[in-house]
Fold these 3 entries.
Entry 1:
Amino acid sequence: MSYFTSLYPSEHKLINKFIKFSKEEKIISNFKEISPDVETLASVFKKNGYVTAAFTGDAGVGAQFGYDKGFDVYIDSSKPFGGFETSIPPALEWLKNNKDQKFFLFLHSYGIHGQYDPPEGYSKKFLDFDYTGPLKGGKEEQGKLREEGLASGKLNLTEEDYKFWKALYDEKIFNSDKKIGEFLEEFKKLGFEKNTIIIFLSDHGTEIGEHGRFDHGFTLYDELINVPLILKFPSNVSGIVREQTRAIDLMPTIFDVVGFKIDEKIKNQMRGKSLIPLMMGEEKIGRDAFSETDYRDYTHKKSLRTANGWKFIYTFESEEKELYNINDDPGEINNLIEKEPRIAYEIEQKLFDYVKSTGQNIIDLKIVGCLPVYGEICTEKLIK
Amino acid sequence: MFLGIFLVIVVIFYFKRGQQNKERPNLILISIDCLGSNHASSYGYYRETTPSMDNFAKEGILFKNYISQSYFTPTSEMSVHTGMYPSSNGVLGFDTVLSKNILTLSEILKIYNYRNAAFGNSPEFALFPLKENFNRGFDVYDFVDYTSPINQENIFSFLAEKKEIPFFLWLGIGSNHLPYGKSSQKFGDLNYEGPLKGKKLDWWKGGVIHWIYSNILYSPDIKNKISLNEKDIQYIIDRYDSDVLSTDEWLGNFLKQLKKTGLDKNTIIIIQSEHGEAFGEKGYIAHYDIFDNIIKTPLLIKLPSLNKKGLIIDNQTQGIDLLPTILDLLDIPKAHQIEGNSLVPLINGQASDNFNEYIFIERPLKSVIISSSDNDIAKKRQIILQSIIIKGQLVEDYIKSLGIEFFLINLKDTAIRTNDWKLIYRKSKNYEEKYSWWVKMSGLEKKMADYELYDLKTDPGEKENVIDRYPDVANELRTKLDFFIKKQENKGIIPQIKKTVQGYF
């Protein structure tokens, strides 16, 4: 939702699937109800005369969470965690039927996600050694490993176990990439390539033991937050932007490129900045990236990854602080919080500037399972 | 010839590198214990008690309405070192511990490569556990007793060391503190022959102050036969004022020596007091409550360039403003927990007229009692955030075992103050009427109102509670005060207690 609103999670407020989750009551977080005044990418395209459609794998981007705002058509496939095999065919159909319209198409897949197993099974093509360990792969095992890691903070797995899992993960990437390739071929055939901007991105990575756990949501290390972003323009202009950019920059970039007239409301909403100056080489400095996670009953963390290669992570419930030099230590293993007190101090103040700007109650963040962006609900969570 | 030029260039380059390490000015913070503005000639006291401070004021900035955040040293001074209210940093008295996650002034300066030293004759800072709150980030930390002189040699020795590294010097001066009369008498009737002559003017059991309380000042109902009259109280004041002058002389001497070393040139010097001293004005001696005689104290700042010299600031300023001001002057980012505001815009004439129009003062009672709260959110946070063990029992059980009822969290009165009004909310009323230290000392019961409103312009001595006379003023202030109290309670900060091992108050 940060891509679609250019807002930080605690600002668009879709930080959890449930506002309230207890035995007695479960309230789904519907973005349209929680943040009714927030405009989305789709709603702005719609206002500017585009037809808008989304073909997704449901689950976290299901319409029930309000993702359908601004979309004429919103398909969350009948089974949760659907891959490209479920989202691409209806997307192509829709494209054929809307050939003469200006469109915004959101095409989504869970094909790389932990809860997805390829219907054709795993060929283990990237497994380049004879794995003799106990793991089998698959979504049940993934779920089990995730919960184990969350409970204990470490897993009793070997190097080979992790290599095995990474091979399966890479295979899923390969499969998804293949399907995207097929889609793009069809897309070209339909003649759209000449006047379409195509954006390829991922909303998060996954951890396969890099910091003792599986899956995503509990931490803000680079394996989770450092993600691909590729923009393809009709002119086929190419290049690599090495400076640091953020998810919140996408929406202003798109508006900059398509040349929409953006009203004051949207301008004031967007936290990011257009990436065009970076792409044109006019701007040479990257941007600090502020990230957040409020994960189930486990943690509240915020991080700041500075443009010059430092990552500072703050865990609210324990007040634990971590500082990594990304350039020297991309694996974020060596916590420099004691060795670099001045850098830590300065980045911490910058981080809290971001936290304060989101308006959330810092005291409530000390309590896990409490979701401060949802206000009052917090204290009820404490009565167990 | 060519060689000569080359050498010169090398030398200049080397010098400049040294300068870079000392880009930031030095800092001296002089905290004078027990000096209210009402006994400082710099603030209009009729006696010439602070001539050195007067001279200092000529070269610096004087803050007419500087208000300490609380009424006694551990709390007031910790608010200065953290820029936070006592209810936010958890240091409510001698027994409470500052969380490791809250950075003090000295810790922040250490991060910025300052060398830090603390000297003084304020032994409170050497007490456990208070010492562990204040000594963080100090390379040298040396406090002696009130009656001992401060060794200037050690101070200047420290200052003279690595001159290329900026220093932070904190002086905690306790020479004004009880016992009074450590110096020779210089004011008043030098031939006083009353009952206090020759007595140690201290408050330990058997000491005069304790004895004064037991016999009640100004009251017709005296339990003992001996009574004190105004001459006797004046004698106490005369001895106290003499100590103030003596302290000021030490200060003047120190500043003169500092000038001789030339170290004052690139140094910010701050002189402040963390609380004043009462002499019967509101029925007690020493420092116990948050009336102006205690919380309105001197603050003077001298900037290196002698910038803004002679400037007098009328806006209220407060203890929690000092740390952000220092960081602002030293070009260090402000720590996010800081609750005060930098006074730099005020000094530069860029602050709005209503800057610090309303400030808040807290009065935790000397014995820190924790209790459950009828505030739901604070209560629930208490349960989750911490559980404290005192003497092997949970707090709640320990309190019950003392036979003390549960009261609202952190028995603490809070006040809101403007330059014209003060409104005090006596949350501790029930407790104080029955169990307080004052009651223990005096042996009398106390009857208190829930709220006290004082008209500071016409009644600076705060003699008359006019809460009923100005309902509009009271309501406006009360709304703001309630909001502040609620906000602080919602933080759910539970003080961490470690019993002081020394016998003290």
Entry 2:
Amino acid sequence: MEQELLHGININHYLGLAAALFSIGALGVLFRRNAIIMFMCVELMLNAVNLTLVAFSKIWGQTDAQVFVFFIMVVAAAEVAVGLSILMMLYRNMHTTDTNVLNLLKN
Amino acid sequence: MLTNYAFWFLSFLAVFSALGMIFSRNPVFSVLSLIVTFFSIAGHYFLLNAQFLAAVHIIVYAGAIMVLFLYVIMMLNLNTLEEEKKSLFAKISAVATAGILMLVMVGAMVKADEITVVQQASNIDVGLTKNLGMALYNDFLLPFELSSVLFLGAMVGSVYLSKKELA
């Protein structure tokens, strides 16, 4: 059964867009060495997941998925507050945010 | 018909500004590109009739989270810092890994519109504030209250971590 969300746009388009955004986020985490940029890429991956949830919420006509998106935003905000203060403290002590230098827990 | 074009426009805007975020050398430009991505995702929410989420998304992400990132980058003065590049092998393997990840996800989702059997789109305005509020305060009251405890914990944690002299 073909279910169109918009004119000529079905769920596959939204899933493909979310997959692209998620992969770009993963690429950023693997590609960059600056911890702040990696952190922003994690936010992008969370948003890709949110997009699929909202698309499915529209297709099923249910509010539950949108409430989940709301809670994901809540957790993301809390995570950013704590993570950025950790990065600030790291920068204060080590004078860098490069993940190749911040390897005290390696080995 | 117009929404169709809006979908493609917002999609390309989101993807290209996300690529601009990860490939730009200047962290401030990265933050601004990510803000553009977030705005286009908010536009997608509008197209999907999720007005409340679109507004909350703009307020929380563009208004709070990205401003926090911008503050930290400007306070640390990172845009003058020259980032060393990764080795070529690490870059190639990162691109290959992300490409394979996307291939797997698209391959898993390619028949999604046939599997997703939908009775009918019952309620057209699920994304309105009234319906979301009813769901949030009736069915999800306990998680809602717990999230305030989470915020309190995050606030205490970040204030403690940013104190000047830690024991």
Entry 3:
Amino acid sequence: MSIPKNLLYTKDHEWVRIEGKVAYVGITDHAQHFLGDITFVELPKIGEEIKQASYCSTVESVKAASEVFAPLSGKVLSINTELSAHPELINQSPYEKGYFFTMEFSNEAEKANLMAADGYEIYIEGISK
Amino acid sequence: MPIQYQGILAEHAHTRRAVSVFDICHMGEFLLEADPVLSGLERVITQNITSMLSGSCRYGFMLNAQAGILDDLVVYRINENKWMLVVNAATALNDYEHLKINLSGQYLLQNVSDKTGKLDVQGPQSLDVLKDIFGVRIEGLGYYRFSDFVFEGEHCIVSRTGYTGELGFEIYISSEHVAKLWEVLLKDGRVRPAGLGSRDTLRLEMGYPLYGQDLDINHTPLSAGFGRFIDFSKEFIGKDVLFKEQKSGPEEHLVCFKADCRRAPRHGFAIFDKDRRVGTVTSGSFSPSLSVGIGMGYVDYSYDIGANLVVKDGLAEIPVKIVKKPFLTKTSL
């Protein structure tokens, strides 16, 4: 299971990559593996204000539909339009080509609610027992 | 049987393109020695079974007195008075009791589910694969026909039947020998294992119902759209109610619908016509062959092919159109 060191993680298996004031958001390798073949994703709208830990996207696999929660609060800057025709990118490349959207985050302090890679690794080991 | 081996989409595609093997050992099998009329077996099953040829299979239903579906099953006529009934796993014990209560006179009924292994070999290359195992005689097997074959000295039954919509076979063999057959099948480079997930997407693309979802005790075979598996010229349990329903028309019926996007309708979603709730989704999934959401559900009888409806739950709202089944028409079946 891939857990890149340079990302932050939520308990709901979203990841966030921070580049200055911009954050890339997606779901983890663990999440895509658990969901299986992903067939559909509904992304937030550009400009939409989203709130940490609140619903922001839906991801569907052949098996089930799941909600995705915002890892940070802020405004959606862009969405990964490739995913509407090729949601399988989330399975193939969860941390790169399969990212969901970018956002401008508004509250630096919220980063404290996220886990670093080693913390997330321990967390998923714990829940898969 | 697991949900998946390498992934539902890959297993689905491989079955449509080549050949897969499904471990279906959980299904229920009964052996019955009985005269079909004198024992009352003909009264228990909606299809006419007396007219079946030995070596043929027929799909039908067992109903309660209210015409609710107790189970759907495939009847195999082994010879004049010998039958194999293939029933769903979850209903097998109830089916067995139902048969015990309704059969009379001289008969011998055995639940052989635990002793019987079952593998489904499905896909356009299934015949080629099985020819190498069972010999060329299998080529002569017509659709819904079966015959005895031998695998490594062990007797088995092979029928040309299936639940995928592709050319395919179902193999019944003793549970001691089924693992060996599985191993031999998977040694063939053309064959891959497939799980419950792709079994469900494959059957749904054909509009085949699943007992417990699309068929249940609260629905009749007429409302499910399976009138062609009912013989109204004979007596059977539930006939009176069905006969009335046939005259008045069912209140609701099972329809197939297609979404306008990749989003999947799911079991339990509500079906709406504008603001009015008109039905409930019983099965739904992303269709790997069509790349859109598809499903089945019961709706008011007034809605038929071409109707535009919306299926929804808390999060999703998916426009759908009622379509003719099957969703997929060009297969190797």
